[in-house]
Amino acid sequence: MPPILQEWGKNYGEIFRTRAGTTDFIWLNSKEAVKELFDRRSAIYSSRQPMPMAFDCATGGKRITFAPYGKHWRDSRAIFHKVLTKRMADDYSVIQIFEAKQLSIDLLNNPKDFYMHNRRYAASVIMQVTYGWRIPKWNCQEIRRIFEVLSRFVQCRKPGQWIVDVFPTLARNPIFNFFSNWKRIGNEFHALDDATWMQFWDDMKQKVADGTAPHCFGKILQVSYEKQGLSESQAAWICGGLIEAGSETTSATLNNCLYLMLSNPDSVKSAQEELDRVVGQDRTPTFEDEPNLPFVRGLIKETLRMRPINKFGNNHCTIEDDWYNGYFIPKGTVVMANWWYIHYDPTYYPDPEKFLPRRWFDYPHSAAKAAALPDGDQRDHLTYGGGRRICAGIHLAEKSLFINVARILWGFNICLAKDEEGGDIELDFSTQSLQKGSSSVTKPFPCDIKPRSQCHENIMREEWQSAKEQGIDFSHIKWSV
């Protein structure tokens, strides 16, 4: 799909319309159009289209990502914001540093499984925030269940996967429902996902009852969800929504970053030279180093530009009629930020097909600050979305990406893997390298990851040993809902 979206953007200009079933899609192909509609007119452009399968049936109307704009979405979103503010993300640094130290050890001990090590890192961070317990290894039941939920999530959101989501009125057609199996599959998905999120919730409920609950967001929500007007099931799905949002997106971006580094070995070398100059070789990078590491920051921004988190753009749905630049946009239209065109528009990014972290050297803003700039054309990229539906976890995600990319480049050499004859295993760096489905997740790929020196390895091992002995203390974090 991405090459088609790029071609459409080139051929049809700033805005064009397509139609799928009974739903109109308006595609926005400029940063300013996205800023105007998603941000300045967010009161109109913040809903979701009807999804009888993906939302109503497969999630029982409880997955906030698919929820239409309204009280349920606003109340749930407000809780998300309280957990994921910049101040809270700063408080979570102790968790991220601890898990990043284990990631370094995992890469030392078993570098071939880097793909799953990154998944473990992301899932463990968000599980500690949500339920207060770690995931110390990737081949465990918890990881399996989380990513099974995410697999069903991807199946639900894939455009065109479910004809009832293309023609929502079919959900009320008894003849169609008699011959179709969408409700059966949706109910199965809901039962499986609900069982996972309720098990995590019930485990915390038991710990709260016997006084052994760890300090975490889930504990606070356990004792206050009724005051928020939530059912127990809705509260469990809010916690599940945090886990969904924090698991695959962060790990996919880390793996995408490693993949794109292999397309430009000079970028790895330049980042390591920067790290040696700023950090030195007798300690690992910290969050305090970030302002002085523009190349590392550029690697992350360039990854998010070239590999936005899904293949179809960021979509919002209108709740009333509107006009934009002479175009009529009816109520109920799905409006897409076509980031696969915008992110490859040479007007914004010269040589857009090349992975060039240096293009960001003079760019001073974090992704969150960039999203708030009044001039839409000055935004770095659109991967975190926009308007009222901008990614609530943007601060947490940015911190996780920085600390891990910085530590990996500080401690390891990243190279193409070798074949049996000692030659490089060449990779396809086009969008054909992405897995099937709606998410921009790179297919598992070979990669040669080795410590830069014995000194670097010793420091990482000593650091991890000390971290294990001290444990993680996040008693200072003050959650509220």
TrEMBL record:
Xref: CDD domains: CYP64-like (cd11065)
Leader peptide range in chain numbering: none
GO terms assigned for molecular function: heme binding; iron ion binding; monooxygenase activity; oxidoreductase activity, acting on paired donors, with incorporation or reduction of molecular oxygen
Residues where heme binds: C391
Family annotation (InterPro entries): Cyt_P450 (IPR001128), Cyt_P450_E_grp-I (IPR002401), Cyt_P450_sf (IPR036396), Cytochrome_P450_fung (IPR050364)
Cofactor(s) needed for function: heme
SUPFAM superfamilies documented for this protein: Cytochrome P450
PANTHER family: OXIDOREDUCTASE, PUTATIVE-RELATED (PTHR46300:SF11), P450, PUTATIVE (EUROFUNG)-RELATED-RELATED (PTHR46300)
Protein family: Belongs to the cytochrome P450 family.
Protein name: Cytochrome P450
Species, as recorded: Corynespora cassiicola Philippines
